Amino acid sequence: YLENILSLLICYLTVTIEPLPPVVVGETVTLKCNFKTDGRLREIVWYRVTDGGTIKQKIFTYDAMFNTNYSHMEDYRKREDLVYQSTVRLPEVRISDNGPYECHVGIYDRATREKVVLASGNVFLTVMSPPNNISVMAENTPAPFSRYQAQNFTLVCTAKGGKPAPSVYFKRDGELIEVISYVQPSTGEQGGTSAGVRGARPLISRDLDDTKLHRSLSLLDPEGRSARLYTESPQRFHTQGQQAYEPSPATETIPETVVSREFPRWVHSTDPLYYFSHIHVPQSDGSVVVQAKLTWTLNPQLDNDALFSCEVKHPALSMPMQTEVTLAAPKGPKLLMTPTRAKVGDTVRITVQGFQNEVFPEPLFTWTQVGGHMLDGSTEREGRELVLERVPAELNGSMYRCTAQNPLGSTDTHIRLIVFGTYRRGGETPPHLRQN
């Protein structure tokens, strides 16, 4: 008889939460809290767990006593809707919603009618975000063209916004590049070397990794020797951006002298080794920035006009994202001189407005005066624009050379300065316009 009474007073409560597959940012997620009990329901409370479980943020409450529900996500503004008493819907999830959630269910104890019996379940919500931006640039540029020494060349592909981190790989002319992976040295170990190859110990065996990418290029040169990277570090230069512009017909432009075809004799390997490295940089929003580097010994004869693409795979993408660049030496710089009719005392600007082709990487510009020095006594200047302040009459007829170069090649273009008008008979420049 006593056992029958106890069985009437003791109630049971079990809580389970259905597991969730990974979801993509922007999708709607339904959290289902299933419970079984023979007691009378008191409340259902949903928590979002943060900081490793130390903080539980109450996001939703169902109060059975008053048959009401309350939202505790003030910043989210109706981002959850009660579909059933045990279900919460989160529309348009964000990366910040990623993490564990708990459902707490309370029922009244039959014995006291006031005491509440609690049980809970938990689930982990995984929110994925595809990369939202990928870009390719050349490292250590602008850089000069080298006719006498081999030099390394590094492409840097950066993918931003992905969670989890995407996989990044390179292709050349549409063919997957087989790479030799190596670990990038820390900033202190690199010492400013090109792509951080100095001091690295790249793998060179064909059998070290069975999971590596399929081969598209041989790892050995025609004589069966492994091609090595040149470790001389190119200098860093800076210049302004470029935009296409047609030169004025009043400007006398001398035909260019193209030297990009004067390729050095040290180039010998047609199948270089490609070295690959990457780093992951976690962001405050939970995404990861991936920076991948592809480094090889440049061959201007073979690499000019080569199409390199960076592709990014991610579980939230139905197909890879891609961006591409074509390596190209500068050809046919377009110069603009302003004013088109320079007078004594004017400030003359000669600007590179663009090229006949798409140039990559960014070129280095060097200006020289043919047969003389610049007004300030210097032998050359760098930058996209040459500025000649308060030009004297003596510069009439002087010629200036613009050398545009990148690691793929170099080209020279000349332009002549015509100065109109003099202040004194014989073309003498007044003292206040003379250069010190």
UniProtKB/TrEMBL annotation:
Establish whether keyword Endoplasmic reticulum is in the entry.
no
Q: Where does the protein end up?
A: Membrane
Residue ranges constituting the Ig-like domain according to the UniProt record:
26-119, 333-418
Q: Which Gene3D superfamilies match?
A: Immunoglobulins
Extent of the signal sequence: 1-26
- Which keywords annotate this record? Disulfide bond, Glycoprotein, Membrane, Repeat, Signal
Positions the record marks as coiled coil are: none
Might you name a Gene Ontology BP term for this protein? homophilic cell adhesion via plasma membrane adhesion molecules
Matching entries from PROSITE patterns are given as: IG_LIKE (PS50835)
This protein's GO cellular component annotations are:
adherens junction; membrane
Q: Which InterPro entries match?
A: Ig-like_dom, Ig-like_dom_sf, Ig-like_fold, Ig_sub, Ig_V-set, Nectin/Nectin-like
Give the protein's recorded name: Immunoglobin superfamily, member 21a
